[in-house]
Amino acid sequence: MKSRLIFVTVVLAAWAGLVAARLYQLQVVEHERYVEIAERQQRDDLTIDPPRGSILDARGRELAVSVRVDSAFVDPSLVENREAMLERLAAIPEIDRAVAARALARPGRFAWIGRKLAPEVSMSLRGLDEPDLHFLQESRRCYPMRRLAGPVLGFVGTDPHGLAGLEARFERQLRGSAVERTVLRDALRGMVQVPAMSFSEAQPGLDLHLTIDATLQHIAERELRAAVERHRAASGSVVVLDPNSGAVLAMASAPDFDPNAFQQASEDEWRNRVVTDAYEPGSTFKVITAAAALEANLVAPSDVFDCEEGGISVKGKWINDHKPFGDLTLSEVLAYSSNVGAIKLGLMVGDEALYEQIRRFRLGELTGIDLPGENAGLVYPVERWGRRDGAYISFGQGISMTSLQLAGVFAAIANGGYLYQPYVVAGVGRNGHSEPLVERPVLLGRPIDPATALTLERMLEGVVDEGTGKAAAVPGYRVAGKTGTAQMAVAGGYAPNSFIASFAGFVPARDPALVAVVRIDKPRGSYHGGDVAAPVFAAIASQALVYLGVPPDRQAPLHWPGELVADSGPEAGTEGVAAAAPSAPEAGPQEREVVAGE
Questions:
Q1: Tell me: the pLDDT tens digits for 487-532?
Q2: Burial environment of residue 57 by CB neighbours within 10 A (0 to 12, 13 to 18, 19 or more)
Q3: 130 pLDDT higher than 70
């Protein structure tokens, strides 16, 4: 009996020793390892992005906002019947079966079923009452005005990172600070958030306050879209500037897209054509040639040019005008858009002086607008110009620029000679307060003096009063502007029957409230700038002036005495394309056989 008691005591002591040793191993030796395993089983640390800052128009209206939405996830290791759960998830039309299958089959403790779900999808998932399906709140980007200013605003991915437009350009300001969120599992395998282990509050991003006015943007987009459809054009763009500061009031592209569904649009529809698409400006460039001549004191508006009744030979190559003209004053050369008159003016100025005037307008370089993807256009150094390039450039061929750059040129004429940097972001801030990122306006230079600007403004009034720009007239207001019709440049020459119709102008001419450039690419049927683009300018300007409360002009002459009288000059309102006589191509940066003009 005693020996049996001793045996049992020894066994129990040995068992107790083994238990104690095992407890020591678990609680002391391997303590850190098991704590780590427990934490992996009981908690997950997720990075949750904060709400992005809003994007607001010039009057505080929301163009882009962030809203709280559900995201759904699972712990694949705890799903007992994956096939059954997959079938229930796939029964919801908005849930991609393949995505859900990959999530459920994924190794590890966490997998997303759906990110930033639409409210109706979240309700459907919650209605499954699936214990292994869990939800977290995230921030989703929404664009309340849908397509409005889509190419300007850009869009945000699921991450969320800005992927285009202002969303990408101001990612650092808009995004804010991410937050770490700790998720714990309870005894019933449910997910809970424990206040004692809560996450730091997210720091929202800053708001962007734009110069763009949603009403003016809507007007520009509506009129542009109607013109593109009416003329069955490939694309188009409009930019409206405040000439006294460079602030962008509207910036429209067609085709465009809805940032809420950017995946359904093509990359071509994402483009902000005002800043990305450079083109040969055609006859709108003639105002720069005139500026160079006026700055050099070589001509006056009343000086007469013999336009040779329809063509001119330049260093052995014949260049046709779009129609025969005889004697025209400088004002009439602009009004009726004579290529021969512009060529003679350019030859008078000379290549060096013309190039210097181009550079003073900062063409061939970026404007520095606060938008991504800007195109600098193309201006060859004068040393690379061929024998005839100065003649071609004088009427807008062999040089390229964006609509934004051209708007800056006309803004400088409108405001007395000041070239301002264009911009779309007035400031950043929170709770309705904003501070400018840089002091505005930013003066880039003074390409022309005030006297030249005034002379050009008066001549550009004549373009609309009596010349090719009659369709740009706005009742009750003086309008100054210039039409353009350019053949589209392609590799090796120019595309047949493919044109760019444009109009650049400002209104009221003598106290400008806005500058606008309208561009329509590949219109079918009529393709002249005066027929296709000028009416779009008039439609936008007439509505914008009323909206901005700009009073009509007082009674005053629309042209200088003795100039541009309707019954004394050539027939107005007609534009065309001039063709060069066939000849061997000339070596140089701009080889060509076809010359576009008006």
A1: 888 887 888 889 999 999 999 999 999 999 999 999 999 999 999 9
A2: buried
A3: yes
The DSSP line for 317-358 is EEEE-SS---EEEHHHHHHHT-HHHHHHHHHHH-HHHHHHHH
d(CA 598, CA 395): 9
Cross-strand bridge partners of residue 241:
248, 515
Residue 393, helix vs strand vs coil: helix
CA angle 408, 410, 415 (to 5 degrees): 90
Which CATH code, of 3.90.190.20, 2.40.160.20, 3.30.200.20, 3.90.1310.10, is assigned to 41-72+138-207?
A: 3.90.1310.10
Structure tokens belonging to residue 342? 């512009």
201-214 core/surface letters (b: 16 or more CB in 10 A; e: else): ebebbbbbbbbbbb
Joined tokens for residue 10: 């020894």
Q: Can you tell me whether residue 541 is helix, strand or coil? A: helix
Close Cβ partners of 217 (under 8 Å, ≥ 6 residues apart): 57, 148, 149, 250, 251, 252
| Torsion angle in degrees (nearest 10) through CA of 12, 14, 18, 23 | 60
Fold exhibited by the domain 214-548: Beta-lactamase (3.40.710)
Strands (E), 536-575: none
CATH 3.90.1310.10 residue spans of the chain: 41-72+138-207
Three-state DSSP class for residue 46 = strand
Q: Residues 272-327: pLDDT tens digits?
A: 999 999 999 999 999 999 999 999 999 999 999 999 998 898 988 899 888 899 99
* Confidence (pTM): 0.81
| DSSP letters spanning 176-244 | -B-EEEEEEE-TTS-EE--GGGPPPPPBPPPEEEES--HHHHHHHHHHHHHHHHHTT-SEEEEEEE-TT
Return the H-helix or E-strand segment holding 147: none
Name the burial class of residue 88, with classes exposed (0-12), middle (13-18) and buried (19+) by CB atoms within 10 angstroms of its CB: middle
Which positions ≥6 away from 165 have C-beta within 8 Å? Answer: 150, 151, 152, 153, 154, 155, 272, 371, 372
Report residue 320 as tokens: 């046709």
CA nearest 468: which of 328, 597, 334? 334
Residues of each domain in the chain carrying CATH 3.40.710.10: 214-548
Token pair in block for residue 382: 């004068």
**Is 198 among the catalytic positions?**
no
| Alpha-carbon gap, residue 230 to 236, rounded angstroms | 12
Whether the CB-CB separation of 72 and 112 falls below 8 Å is answered with yes
Choice among 122, 237, 283, 338 that is catalytic: 283
Tell me, what DSSP letter sits at residue 28? I
Q: Are 494 and 594 in contact (CB under 8 A)?
A: yes
pLDDT by residue (tens digit) across 184-214? 555 444 444 444 434 445 678 999 999 999 9
